[in-house]
Design brief:
Order of helices and strands: HHEEEEEHEEEEEEEEEEEEEEEEEEEEH
Radius of gyration: 22 Å
CATH topology of the largest domain: Neuraminidase
Mean pLDDT: 87
Number of domains: 2
Shape: globular
Helix content: 10-25%
Strand content: 35-45%
Number of helices: 4
Largest sheet: 5 strands, antiparallel
Distance between the termini: 53 Å
Length: 412
């Protein structure tokens, strides 16, 4: 806060102290609303659709010919007993070829001791590094200068400026519908992180913005991060971030998707000629995965429609792989998360063919998947394993095609 701003704040407080209780309440409410509106308007630069999407940070052609022999392996990101509960992993491919994962862990989801952790898989290595605590309730409270009750989902991604960005959820009061989003940046590929910055997204108290899946990138440097709103009405949004050269954000703009009630946690897949697919978790009663399309690089969207695949109110993720097909991971059920299955689309997401089952165990949970393809053409899948650990599965297209032909389950 600058000296003039501090003086104005002191004057406002003094003036408030001379008012009656009723007028104080009105004064405080108006002040908060005006501040929220200013924050919202201040984030609304860059109102034009991107001219094109960039390949940076998206799946690109492998740097060498893909393996013709089927390959499948699995490993653990979290050691045994690292935290009592672990959930909601996001993974990104760093420019040097390493994978970086982030998730939250603690005694249970929403507990005060929950923290965000990162781990790295060095390119060519078989083992993930020991988890590193990046954010917890106390550090977020200190960096943001406000009371923080709990932390939640996080997403990490290269920002196109040589840095790694992180957007994560905090809650000051209430449940997840009372959440806000915050931004951190690492200038050394995820080894260390700068302070947190709160993003002013929604005009009324800046509440109920959450994040789950990875972004797309425009050729002008903007990053289109899929987020969602959960208070009163649930609907997806797209948060366009513009990273600055110093790693901070120069501007950001949120765009809501009207007419998408009961749909959350959008996953974006860039297609050909500026077309983008969005697949969504059904937070209502339909029990089907929903999808929508954009023909202007993610700026405006068609109405969402029910697809071929079931959805038990659970997160999904999808990517376009190097041979042009789409690969999706989902819970093949309308009522529970007891399995995790792959599906493949050869028609840009209009239809899906169910593929191999990666996990299947009664009365257990396998959820919140995340997909990425590396420069070798290997597909990496991370997910919550029984709410206890974060698991990593790696396979190639030769293995996937073999499984699709034979209709077999994977062997974790």
């Amino acid at each position: 806060m600058t000296p003039p701003q501090a003086a104005a704040a002191r004057s406002s407080v003094a003036q408030c102290g001379r008012l009656s209780l009723r007028h104080r309440i009105i004064f405080i409410a108006v002040t908060v609303l005006v501040a929220a509106a200013v924050a919202y308007r201040g984030s609304s630069a860059g109102r034009n659709a991107p001219a094109s999407l960039s390949g940076v940070g998206m799946t690109a052609a492998p740097s060498r010919a893909p393996d013709r022999s089927p390959a499948f392996s699995s490993s653990w990101i979290t050691p045994v007993g690292h935290t009592e509960s672990a959930h909601s992993c996001s993974v990104c491919l760093l420019p040097g070829g390493d994978l970086l994962a982030v998730w939250f862990g603690g005694t249970r989801e929403g507990a005060a001791d929950v923290a965000l952790f990162t781990s790295r898989l060095v390119a060519g290595s078989a083992a993930w590094s020991a988890p590193v605590r990046v954010v917890d309730r106390e550090s977020a409270q200190r960096e943001l200068g406000r009371s923080i009750r709990k932390v939640g989902n996080a997403v990490i991604f290269p920002d196109g400026q040589g840095n790694v960005g992180m957007v994560y959820v905090t809650v000051t009061f209430g449940g997840w519908s009372g959440s806000a989003l915050n931004y951190k940046v690492s200038r050394d590929a995820g080894q260390t992180w700068g302070p947190s910055r709160r993003l002013g997204i929604n005009p009324l108290f800046n509440l109920s913005s959450l994040v789950r899946n990875q972004p797309i990138r425009a050729s002008d440097g903007r990053i289109g991060l899929p987020i969602y709103h959960e208070m009163a009405r649930t609907f997806p949004q797209l948060l366009w971030l513009t990273p600055a050269a110093d790693g901070d954000l120069s501007q950001y703009l949120v765009r809501s998707l009207p007419g998408s009630q009961h749909l959350i946690q959008p996953s974006l897949v860039p297609l050909e000629n500026g077309r983008v697919l969005m697949v969504l978790r059904d937070h209502g009663s339909a029990g089907r995965m929903q999808s929508a399309f954009s023909d202007d690089r993610g700026w405006t969207w068609s109405p969402a429609v029910s697809g071929d695949l079931p959805n038990p109110d659970a997160a999904v993720d999808a990517i376009r792989v190097s041979d042009g097909r789409l690969v999706l991971v989902y819970n093949d059920s309308t009522r529970g998360r007891e399995n995790l299955r792959l599906a493949v689309s050869s028609d840009a997401g209009r239809t899906w063919r169910p593929g191999p089952v990666v996990e299947d165990e009664a009365k257990q949970e396998f959820s919140y998947p995340c997909l990425v393809e590396d420069a070798r053409g290997r597909i990496h899948l991370t997910y919550t394993w029984k709410r206890q650990r974060i698991k990593h599965v790696e396979f190639n297209l030769a293995w996937l095609d073999q499984q699709m032909r034979e209709g077999q389950s994977a062997s974790p």
